[in-house]
Amino acid sequence: MDAILLQILNGLDKGGAYALIALGLTLVFGTLGVVNFAHGALFMLGAFCAVTVQKILTLSLKVKDESITFFDAYKEQPYLELWFGDFGTKIIDWSVPISIVIAIPIMLLIGLAMERGLIRHFYKRPHADQILVTFGLAIVMQEIIKSFFGANPIPTPAPEIVAGSAPIGVLLGLGESVVYPWWRLIYLLFSGVVIFAVFAFLQFTTFGMVVRAGMHDRETVGLLGINVERRFTIVFGIAAVVAGLAGVMYVPILPPDYHMGMDFLVLSFVVVVVGGMGSLGGAVAAGFLLGILQSFASMNEIKDIIPGIDQIIIYLVAVVIILVRPRGLMGRKGVMED
Fold first, then answer.
1. pTM of the model
2. Where are its TM segments located (predicted)?
């Protein structure tokens, strides 16, 4: 029972990342009709926003180490600690949460620039052209990050107060042996909040209602005198923010490197296909479902029976879904069927 609970939590945690990226992919496809293979790169850029904030907050000055008296020794001490003492230390410790506030406007501007500068010119082009140009853009972003930050993963810790594990076994009456990292629980909660916020925005605001109407019939909405294109541009920016925030919050779980976006993109695109192209609910449901399946497939008991199953389980499920229901679990009729 303990192992099953931990695997479910692992699956929900990983599924949260898949769902957030897939949600952005589906938003872009549903509104603009663009298959955006650069969306994983936005996840990576969000992660490196957190890395950049940490590097800025830890800018240091060489000062004399007073603890060594035999000779003159120097150590690096962050400016924030020199200026603000213990409060500066706490600011550095909370670099990841601080990065969330900073990443929102940055990712919004990046998303708007991408849509205005490149994506809008491929609205009516074949999907193959869209995939090629966005995939090329993703590679360019990867190489830029690699040139600035190097090829190695960069550890970015969570705040010390949530660096340990939560005694979920005690809370659920399963004993003290069942624990789970606090930050992973926070990430799961964060994923749920962001997903709820996006759905609430689309469902209960006038802006969201126009966007949903435009997803179904753009021409009719345009004939009503509504500037649909401007709203869709903003939606692209929102999708970039969602992907970026997913990346920011994931850095304490997986130290970011330049190709992490492509790793998550491939899996998230499979999630979108399984959930159904253009279906927001399908993308979220498939993200969590496939995350749980992948988590259980990674158990040693399963891998002993079928070696490597954890690496291919998502693709096997996708193949079965596409064969049985080509439009995905919750896909709309006619989407990607031309």
1. 0.88
2. 15-35, 42-61, 91-110, 161-180, 187-211, 231-252, 264-293, 305-324
